[in-house]
Predict the structure.
Amino acid sequence: MLSPDQARDRALDLVERARRAGAETADAVYGASSSEGIQVRLGKLEDVERSESEHIALRVFVGKRSASIGSSDLSPAALDELAARAIDMARAAPEDAYAGLAPDELLTRGPWPDLDLIDAHEPSPEALREAALEAEDAARAVSGITNSDGGTASFGHGVFALATSHGFSGAYGSTSHSLSASVVGGDGSDKQRDNAWRSTHHHADLPSPAEIGRLAGERTVAKLGSGKLKSGAMPVIFDPRVSSSLVGHLLGAITGSAITRRSSFLLEKLGEQIFAPGILIADDPHTPRGLRSRPFDGEGLATSARNIVEDGRLTGWLLDSASARQLNLAPTGHAARNGGGAPGVSTGNVHLAAGTLSPKELMADVKDGVYVTELIGQGVNGVTGDYSRGAAGFRIVDGELAGPVAEFTVAGNLLRMFAQLTAANDLEWHRAINVPTLRVDGMTMAGD
């Protein structure tokens, strides 16, 4: 694995080759990763995976024409050929008035914050196997568990570098540790499956394998004996396992591509009250050890904290340079690169601020409702905001959980759901999008 400095030099070298080949401007993205994972099932080793990858991608501009190409062959001859092919492709491409590198004056030069994304602790294969076994054993020890899909433990390391022809170059590395367990409970026709998992940059931030396994087992047996839910309108409580998806739909609707294509249900809502007063949704790409922390974006612009929703009002869009030009706005430092091609958009570490009520208090006045722990399918219309997804969870009767339910659909419209949303006080900070328990009144259930 190359160091960040070596990775940066690789990207710079390819940009220079592109300039020599005839590119007016260019950028290059280098990425490498390695990982090792161990899977066990029923107390026995089932799979060992080791992977390594290295890839470099080049984007060139000839006037308003551009092309992107990538390769895993990093030999000098292959890189020269890559640059020449990219130029030929660009000359044959259609013009794009909005394409181009980020504005020179907005490039970040550093120094960048230390985000603490690299853990010096690298577990051995034996340690990974013991962790996976411990997680599965703890899950299988829960009364009612009858089978297992297995336990897994893995470790990985990655490096990312970006260089541009107009003066930016930077790179950073990160490590990852993960644990999971998935088990089956019950017999005959009453079988249920659930899991627990966690991923962190630092091993010290992981829960113990026993905690992961026990949680997987308890979640599974809690679903045994699932009944049906009657159809009708009722309050819905979204568990933190799934509540983050509601914020994810918001983020998808305010990306530059959704706005420029006029394919967002939030198109005319900039600055408007779309949540209740007091609701705050914030993005912080500089959170130490955050899963989506990064010192610069995919175009070489500075990343920074911002409030996406403030006092319930939508504050702005998430823009790369191309969409910003089309909207006559400034890019927001949210460009993202996934290998080659033009930048997409990604946030940093997002959270919806906690409310004042506990989850128990949030449901205390619910006479008949549902507590959702699982969402199934992708039934969300990004243009209209119409929302309809399969779900499972628990009935709420007179303010208390009253048994598991499954095979029902929860439906509504995201604009109305956002307006009706109330947050509990149980915010935790271990996901890329961190959201507490949420309550949304007046949703439509389709069950028996």
Summary: The chain has two domains: 4-221, 226-448. Residues 100 and 145 are 56 Å apart (CA to CA). The chain is about 25% helix and 40% strand.
